[in-house]
Write a structure and sequence with these properties.
single chain; 558 residues; alpha+beta
Amino acid sequence: MADIKGREIKVHEHGFVRVVDTMGDDAAIVQAARVSYGEGTKTVNEDAGLLNYLMKHKHSSPFEMCLSGGTRVPTAPCAGAAVKFYTMKQLADAFAEGGKRNAWVKLVNIRTVNPSTGVVTATKIKRAWKTGERAVYRVTTSAPVKRSVVLTANHPILTPEGFKSLDEGLAAGDVVMANGIPALQDDVVSEIKRRRAAGQPLTTVASALGVSASVVYKYAGGRVPRMTGFLKKPTGAHVDPRSIARRRKALGVCEAIGCGAPATDRHHIDEDPHNNALDNLSALCAKHHRHVHTMSVLEKAVQTTIESVEYVGVEDVYDLEVWDDNHTFVAEGVVVHNCEIKMHVKLPIFVARQWIRHRTANVNEVSGRYSVLPSEFYTPDTWHTQAKDNKQGSGEALDAEAQGHVTDAYTMAVEDVFEWYESTVAKDDRPYMVAREQARIVLPLSTYTEWYWKIDLSNLLHFLRLRSDPHAQAEIRAYADVIGGLVQKWVPLSWEAFEEYVLHARTLSRAQLVVLNDMLALLEGNNVDTVAGLLEEVERDKILDKREAKEMKEIFGV
């Protein structure tokens, strides 16, 4: 895979395309397919052949990475507040519906993890969306940090060595990253113990330090034991299951991977206090015991081992994007990653308005309300007449004399507009002028804008199929051609399959297939003129409409 990141590729006079980041390659797509389709792909044993198979039969799931709708995303609440959980479907639905009733979805804090340091911080959700139906798998981690997340085979999970997915060989026995290390700093724990030693009640200490009473009790229990269900029963009516666990399980060192702190608690893995089998008991320190039960707000990610990977079936799947630069979030306690190619694009506004009709990407565009836009505008190399057979296309080029007159008049008009804008818009040194949000309304559609554009490979190829077509407007086709060249370097085998089965392929209607059968009979005699005559007759008799007849002529070159 060629490195395509960082370099600006010029498009038109002032525009460019620059790849900011990519994840995945041909190998990842192939592995995703082999995990997802299993036995069905064993006859296609080479990467190029398998990618051709996927493209030809429109299997899009290996090109997209998502989580199931029921996957829970825990919040990152402030001190003392309870952790809440929202499913991926709830988040996506809230973004889709919008309005005041769903304003909360843009305000809620969830967790993001720095892949290099493992530090867990809070971030907000930029957007969440449904991506379609995909084959999904349940990844379950082992005790003591037992977690279960349902995702597609190519969704990356954070490991100690970096991000890896099931299609890249992640399997049972491998280590992945989950939450860990206490929500409370050592000095806060020390203060809890000091206040309790001084005789302050649980509620007083909890209120002073902004934590719950149960947290205070965890670090400095009171003189009166908590009245749990089995302690409320009459004496002799039961055996305290915790005493059985204490006899059977020695404490020693915390069993959370990489912890090493002295164990203080015995944890029932299945959360059934009456199941005191040794394989159901783990020795944990207080901080990890609390996290296992509550997914409490944590400072860092810790390691846990994958216990099993099992196929679930085909479900509606979702993805979300966070504002944080780490592009990670915590789902069911497991650290996962957003998966898209990200590009920085500078383009004329009228091209941007065509581009934005593809609603399958995330766009962050420069705002004329906050910034003074530069005096840069697009000028066509060639002016055309209106097409006679296409209400939205260009026809023949104007003659040379007309070209010059149109360009001079256009340039003069646009420069006058920018001169007014520059002299009128408010800037830092003249805030008393016209507000930027109002001054910008005079600017023409040829003004350049910039945005960051993020999209998965499947939807990117769909964009290129439409915008690389010869019928697309030349100005946006120029950008599609540049992006296509970048995609070709990034995933060359996928691009080759895309060219063969999508970009340069044609789909025929049932009526066109009937005509094709007649044409094949004529072609047996190598009589091209007869074929051309047949197509003229087909169009004249309206067996095909004008557009379908024209497509047939283009396909067969007659």
